[in-house]
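anyone else get weird line breaks when pasting these?? whatever heres mine. first is seq + tokens for prot A
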Amino acid sequence: MEAVTGVFTSKSNAERAAALLASTGIPEKQLALLTPQSLGHDKELAPTDATEQPGIGKAIGAVLGGSAGLTGGLALSFILPGVGPITALGLLGSAIATAAGATAGAAVGEKLEESTTEGLPEDEIFVYEDALRKGRTVIVAMAPDESAASRIRELLKVEGAESVDAAREQWWIGLRSAEQEHYSSLGKNFSQDEKFYRLGFESALHARTRCREYDQVLSEMSADIEDLEKQYPGVSLAEPFSRGYERGRDYYQALCDEAKAA
């Protein structure tokens, strides 16, 4: 399974795209929509079950021609660390939110255990979070093969989505100057080491490792470095990767602290 993601500045465009994707035959459990909740404006989008209360799941369900909406009408409100309140529509949406650190209720947890989340894009979740912090809406669809993935990408593009790769680049552009200044202040060559520094930074944001104590992730960080050294023999990359990793951890912690303070 391959995750295909679209980032929308317009929530209504994202809803329409989700409905169109569902109409092409994508199973409901393989389609997710994540949207931020603004104070006051999205109060109606926080039901625990969209089959019983009004909200985004029911709205899309109407577009799809059924009252259940995506994935049995599952539309849940979560508090996402470093982001704030979001609505996750669909079982996949709930799985992504849970992987990002949000807490799911017992009933949802049961459904998640029964569902197939193979290919869950844990290495992209930080990009989704950045988009949500900026008020954007994210669609994730799981494609069984590259042919299906290509069709999904094209549909999302036509509906006005930015690709996850483009969103990732925008995220880094927003951080790059500060990271260059920090790394250069250590007497290091950022232009030379940026690639591996950034890889370390992003690795620290992987859903499976963040929020764990540093000594708990050292073995995984070392394994990542070993894999890179095999890909780039003779390149001195361990230090920039490690430095980037440490900064990535600090970055995520700062986001969580800001969210708590708010």
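and prot B, same format (seq, then tokens)
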Amino acid sequence: MHKMPTGVEGFDAITGGGLPRNRTTLLLGGPGSGKTVFALQTLVNGARQFGEPGIFVAFEENSRQILINAASFGWKLPELEKKQLLFIDAKMRPDVIKAGEFDLSGMLAGIKAEADARGARRIVFDSIDVLLTLLDDRFAERREIYRLDDWLSESGLTGIITAKSQGDDPFIAEGYGFMQFMTDCVVALKLRLVDQIALRYVQVMKYRGSGFAENEVPCIIGASGMEVADISAATVAPEASPERVSSGVERLDAMLGSGYFRGSSVLITGSAGTGKSILAGAFAEAACLRKERTLYVSFDENPSEVVRDLSSVGIRLGPHLKSGVLRMHSARAEASSAEVHLMKIKAIVREHQSRCMVVDPLSAIVKAGGALTAGRVAERLFCLAKSEGITLVSTSLMQGAQPLSEETPVQISTVADSWVHLTNISQAGERIALSASSNRAV
């Protein structure tokens, strides 16, 4: 099976290299699911990364509107349009009157001439179902889709056809279901609302002649277009390091056997006021003093507040922030989905080349799509840290004062390499701080 890479890293990973070359792919999705974005992004990446010119045929939107809408992704489409991309408006005007029968032969002949002249290798037919409704004949609709499929096979072009599905149902509206059986690859894009948070997924439903990941995979529409979570690569971790790094607290280092393992994941839990953020801040300061580039992710608290509050207990992050060794990222948890937060963190980690990372509190992402989604994202964050060789310290807020509770809100206590639990107990009008730790190597 020869494959055409889409340039979307995570998607090419779950399909083993991209879409089937010189064959037809059906892209299904409801309104706002990202069909046009994904299809156009595939053409842009083909032109830029692989030197393959492409053609975009629009049946529903005006091509000028598509160019304007895609301007925010930074693809520089006007430059690509000059030589490598051709946009064809196939949208019927409202004043057109249909008289007699028609077929796609004439349009396909014109497109073939343009493809030969430009050396095009990829083509997108966006919202083909809009054109089919004009035929008003189920037999004619099926005939034209088979004509289009045969034309793609003979022309040597790799084709993507987009069409609408009903809500979250991956199956296209009644009457067009045959398209899923006709095409060689079927990809469904899904948009769901969970706890008032928008969540996007992509699922490869069919791929003739090739293996693929069958499960739904999270995706987002970000600053550079659609991004698909690379769940296959996230599980690959480098060799475990025997080196220890300081937690920033001498006696905690002694409890853990000289500190945390480099490249390990550490979970610090406890109720409010037990000192979780202090331990996280101490680790960040110790890493910066070792001149290790460190990322501090703070949910629901801006960086200046974090620096001010930690300075009151002798933890000085301000100088490291100014030098660039420390990078701070703050976000409101419920402002985006947990997947969006994860992909932003991933981008910052690679840009900053971080060696150490703090996430405070990790439990806040429960507000960004529910506990189940948050747990999966947290696990992938731990996998990301391991694959990048990053020492990760995350905090999690727990309800109650049980010193050794076996469950965290995001349910990742068993995934962490080291678990430190903090608690306060009031006795005779005084508060007693207790800590318990678990380290797999101790």
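btw re prot B: Residues 138-155 form the longest helix (18 residues). The two ends are 49 Å apart (CA to CA).
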